[in-house]
Specification:
With about 375 residues, the protein is an alpha/beta fold. Helices cover about 40% and strands about 15% of the residues. It is built from 13 helices and 13 strands. This is Glycosyltransferase.
Length: about 375
């Protein structure tokens, strides 16, 4: 069988999403329409609009539409799938209906996709009750109800969809396994607390900094690493300096070997207001590094307080983050148990075979 997919994901994210599909014998070819050619993956063929057109959004989108229409008519895919409702899910929906193919969407960002495009800040935080759907949301729900398949990251998003009237029979929870690089190693733990990710407002990395400020009063020699880059980099460095934390928090920028940085760390912090399903959490668990996380969506399926980490109600609860950091660092035996349980979580639940089984339900 052939599959037709449209997306705009990073190369690493693409590989993690697609890799289980490539190991299914029944899948012959995965046709991906994307802005640029992605990583070389078995069974995957890329179809990309001209580089110049990508810079002119309406033209690039229209060319993608034409590619999808042509590929659906020529290769007769078993499923047309978009990653993110807007615009890729909408493109997949139109193509699927025009060519009479099964159509689906992967809601990688979660419920926020039903409220407005983009990434609004502190408006639709998953740590708080979400508002009623606007006219835009009602339109998106109308489209979603007519999809054949909706893939989500966990029960938080699934419950939201059921609440707004989406048939639960078409909703599939799919956890994606990590690449083999993310394994526990014997690298010395020279970092106490790690933040790994994009430095964007939605991540609220300022909570990491303020929590460190409080934790340092109890653990003066605490070492914190922020690994990543993004639009908030300068603001965050300035905040750290203003709190006299320049010798405590080190900003390392983006790194191509995140598994090494995770393995150097004792605790990973996630302070987002919302997440689809953060790669850094899965990566940390694979490396045996417990996670202290805000309750920012589907992550609550995986992180269990008292087992492999600590969940905190809200992303701006600086005191609770600081208290959790201090408690774990001052109780190395508990931290060790959480580390072992982190690996158990992924080896028992987030496996390649489990992902393949879900895919075979999606594309029977």
């Amino acid at each position: 069988m052939n599959l037709l997919i449209t997306m705009k994901l990073s190369d690493l994210n693409l590989r993690n999403h697609i890799y289980p599909l490539t190991k299914i014998d029944e899948v012959d070819t995965i046709l991906i329409v994307r802005d640029t050619i992605g990583p070389s993956v078995d069974k995957v063929k890329y179809y990309c609009p001209p580089t110049w057109s990508v810079k002119i959004y309406p033209i690039g989108l229209f060319i993608k539409f034409l590619y999808l229409l042509y590929l659906s008519l020529k290769y007769k895919p078993k499923l047309v799938l978009g990653y993110l409702l807007f615009p890729h899910g909408m493109l997949a929906y139109i193509i699927g209906k025009l060519t009479r193919k099964r159509v689906g969407v992967n809601l990688i960002a979660g419920p926020v996709e039903f409220f407005e495009p983009g990434s609004p800040i502190e408006k639709y935080a998953y740590t708080r009750p979400l508002p009623e759907l606007s006219l835009y949301g009602l339109f998106v729900r109308h489209i979603a109800k007519r999809m054949d398949i909706i893939i989500v990251n966990g029960t938080y998003t699934k419950s939201f969809l059921e609440k707004i009237g989406i048939n639960k029979e078409k909703i599939f929870i799919l956890y994606k396994p990590m690449e083999n690089n993310f394994i526990q190693t014997s690298i010395p733990k020279v970092i106490d607390v790690l933040f790994l990710g994009r430095l964007a407002k939605v991540k609220h990395v300022e909570t990491v900094i303020h929590s460190t400020y409080l934790a340092k009063k109890v653990i003066p020699d605490i070492k914190v690493a922020i690994v990543g880059d993004g639009p908030e980099y300068t603001n965050l460095v300035n905040l750290s300096d203003s709190l006299d934390l320049s010798n405590t928090i080190v900003f390392y920028g983006w790194k191509k070997d995140p598994w090494n940085w995770i393995n150097k760390s004792k605790i990973n912090l996630l302070t987002s207001e919302r997440e689809g399903f953060p790669q850094s959490v899965m990566q940390s668990l694979h490396c045996g590094v417990p996670v202290v996380s805000s309750m920012c969506g589907d992550v609550t399926d995986i992180i269990q307080t008292g087992y492999n980490g600590i969940l905190i109600r809200d992303y701006n609860d600086v005191e609770s983050f600081a208290t959790s950091i201090i408690w774990l660092l001052q109780n190395p035996d508990i931290l060790h148990d959480y580390s072992n349980n982190s690996i158990k979580t992924v080896t028992e639940r987030i496996t390649m075979s489990a992902a393949q089984d879900i895919w075979m339900e999606i594309i029977p």
